[in-house]
Write a structure and sequence with these properties.
The chain is of the alpha+beta class. It has a five-stranded mixed β-sheet with strand order 1-2-3-5-4, with helices on one face. It is built from two helices and five strands; from the N terminus they run ββαβαββ. The relative contact order is 0.20.
Length: about 100
């Protein structure tokens, strides 16, 4: 039984914390089955992914999250992510997203 997953990729780009070229870990997707939420599964997946990205020298991590996904925003903020900016109409349904980032 799969209760959750995280999907990440490594990329290079301009840092969200200054004008320099950096290697970033991009968290593309994180999901936990509803029956297993609020049990630390998402936190564990996120922490492990950050460790693995750091092993690949990606000391900045980024992600996008719906502005209305308060539980996810709280999880990310507790893991050191900061809201960088709002991405208007980011999703196919027209919903906005926050670009969030953290430095290791």
């Amino acid at each position: 039984v799969i209760i959750g997953y995280i999907m990440c990729r490594l990329e290079k780009g301009i840092s969200n914390f200054g004008f320099k070229w950096v290697k970033k870990g991009h968290i593309v997707s994180l999901a936990v089955d509803e029956d297993y939420r609020n049990q630390g599964v998402g936190k564990a997946l996120l922490e492990k992914a950050i460790i693995e990205m750091e092993k690949q020298q990606a000391f900045e991590q980024v992600l996008e999250v719906r502005t209305t996904n308060y539980d996810a925003i709280h999880l990310y903020q507790n893991s050191g992510f900061h809201i960088i900016k709002t991405l208007k109409r980011y999703y196919h349904d027209g919903a906005d997203a926050y670009l969030m980032a953290r430095k290791s």
